[in-house]
């Protein structure tokens, strides 16, 4: 007798995790992992932030902490601190009771809870995401009930910059009440963010077309080392009077990848709408995972609420962002020194964990096969995978790949 499950077909692998496993299994001495979006120190090792270690020890010694259920919407102290960090503690919308947070399963959980809420209760069915974007955005929104996935132009491979005219044109053609997914900072995968003036034009079009902003803030503080600078776009939209939601993640800026610490910040124009929205968000979460885990949220809430710990944490994110900037400079410097064809200035103009290198799929595959340098086939690399011990090796390999397999389009003269 056959199995009922014979109808289940083999699903495609998730590229970033598949490549990460290939890297782990690779026995080549000089292998390099530029795939998964996680911070690595100058020795290529994962780094637990010292303030995280210290706070965890304090928590372990605190016998008043129990393993009881959190409320469905999570730890209030954590969500309040998260909203305050995102919007600025003196933001009028907080004082007026028009902003609140919901603890979620990291940024992905925030996206999922927010998307399901917008689909189920505001009846929104169309969402736009940048081309390209983080590969999980499409899946999360479609699984949340959105039936009209669309893209807006973002990356121009010829200039290795934002196709801003294309972006604006696509937003102008978006139907009213479309949800527009926006990266708060450190756009994934390109590493290129709009300027303040460009954000203002984006807001103009969205206001005119009655579009709904859904921000994804995965790198606040981690991108530039400055919490306020990385939250500028979200705060600007709030100042303009937009209602919006924003998924926040503490995976990168606290190094809490596996603790799944996240928040969904919600900003409304009328405080009377908050209670009904919270009541319905409670049912969204109840039917999804019932309530969130406590450990990571307690840790983040403790750090954000203690001035001394908060300052210590800010020094850590500055250290991480500075190392990323140094590695960008080092990679470009090596490529220039090697006389690698093309202009590589875009590597240092980009921000955050990733660089959209402009390498073609053929060049990327060559790097994997010949040099054991693992990167996504789109040419996206995690800059943190570079360190003083391997950046010269990586640059020489890129030089070989670019020389052996020239790109079809003309390299920009910047």
With helices defined by DSSP (H or I, 4 residues minimum), what is the helix count?
16
Helix/strand/pairing category: alpha/beta
Radius of gyration: 22 Å
Oligomeric form: single chain
Report helical residue fraction: 40-55%
Strand content range: 5-15%
Sheet with most strands: strand arrangement: 2-10-9-8-7-3-4
> How many strand segments?
13
How would a textbook summarize the main sheet?
7 strands, mixed
Shape annotation: globular
Cofactor: pyridoxal 5'-phosphate
Subunit structure: Homodimer.
Catalytic activity: L-aspartate + 2-oxoglutarate = oxaloacetate + L-glutamate
Pfam family, one: Aminotran_1_2
Notes on the protein architecture:
- It is built from 16 helices and 13 strands.
- The protein is globular and about 65 Å long.
- β5 (155-156) and β6 (161-162) form a beta hairpin.
- α2 (50-61) crosses α12.
- The protein is an alpha/beta fold and 414 residues long.
- Strands 2-10-9-8-7-3-4 form a seven-stranded mixed beta sheet, with helices on both faces. Strands 1-12 form a two-stranded parallel ribbon. Strands 5-6 form a two-stranded antiparallel sheet.
- Residues 409-414 have low confidence and may be disordered.
């Amino acid at each position: 007798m056959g199995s009922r499950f014979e109808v289940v077909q083999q699903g495609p692998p998730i590229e970033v995790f598949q490549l990460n496993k290939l890297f782990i299994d690779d026995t080549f001495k000089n292998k390099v992992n530029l795939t998964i979006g996680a911070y690595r120190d100058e020795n290529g090792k994962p780094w637990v932030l010292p303030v995280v270690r210290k706070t965890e020890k304090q928590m372990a010694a605190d016998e008043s902490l129990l393993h009881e259920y959190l409320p469905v919407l999570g730890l209030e102290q954590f969500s309040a601190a998260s909203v305050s960090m995102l919007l600025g503690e003196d933001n009028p919308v907080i004082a007026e009771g028009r902003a609140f947070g919901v603890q979620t399963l990291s940024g992905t959980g925030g996206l999922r809870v927010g998307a399901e809420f917008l689909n189920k209760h505001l009846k929104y069915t169309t969402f736009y995401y940048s081309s390209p974007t983080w590969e999980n955005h499409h899946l999360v929104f479609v699984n949340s009930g959105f039936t009209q996935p669309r893209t807006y132009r973002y990356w121009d491979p010829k200039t290795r910059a934002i196709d801003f005219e294309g972006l604006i044109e696509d937003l102008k053609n978006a139907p009213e009440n479309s949800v527009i997914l926006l990266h708060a900072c450190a756009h994934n995968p390109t590493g290129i963010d709009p300027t303040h003036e460009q954000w203002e034009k984006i807001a103009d079009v969205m206001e005119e077309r009655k579009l709904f902003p859904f921000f994804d803030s995965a790198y606040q503080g981690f991108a530039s080392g400055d919490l306020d600078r990385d939250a500028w776009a979200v705060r600007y939209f709030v100042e303009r009077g937009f209602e919006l939601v924003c998924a926040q993640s503490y995976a990168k800026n606290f190094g809490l990848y596996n603790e799944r610490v996240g928040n969904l910040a919600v900003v409304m124009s009328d405080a009377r709408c908050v209670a009904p929205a919270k009541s319905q968000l409670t049912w969204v979460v109840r039917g999804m995972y019932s309530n969130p885990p406590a450990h990571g949220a307690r840790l983040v809430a403790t750090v954000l609420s203690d001035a001394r710990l908060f300052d210590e944490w800010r020094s850590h994110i500055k250290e991480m962002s500075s190392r990323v900037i140094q590695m960008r400079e080092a990679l470009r410097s090596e490529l220039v020194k090697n006389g690698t064809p093309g202009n590589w200035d875009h590597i240092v103009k980009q921000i955050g964990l990733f660089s959209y290198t402009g390498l073609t799929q053929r060049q990327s595959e060559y790097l994997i096969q010949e040099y054991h340098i693992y990167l996504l086939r789109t040419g996206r690399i995690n800059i943190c995978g570079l360190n003083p011990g391997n950046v010269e090796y990586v640059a020489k390999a890129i030089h070989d790949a670019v020389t052996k397999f020239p790109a079809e389009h003309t390299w920009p003269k910047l």
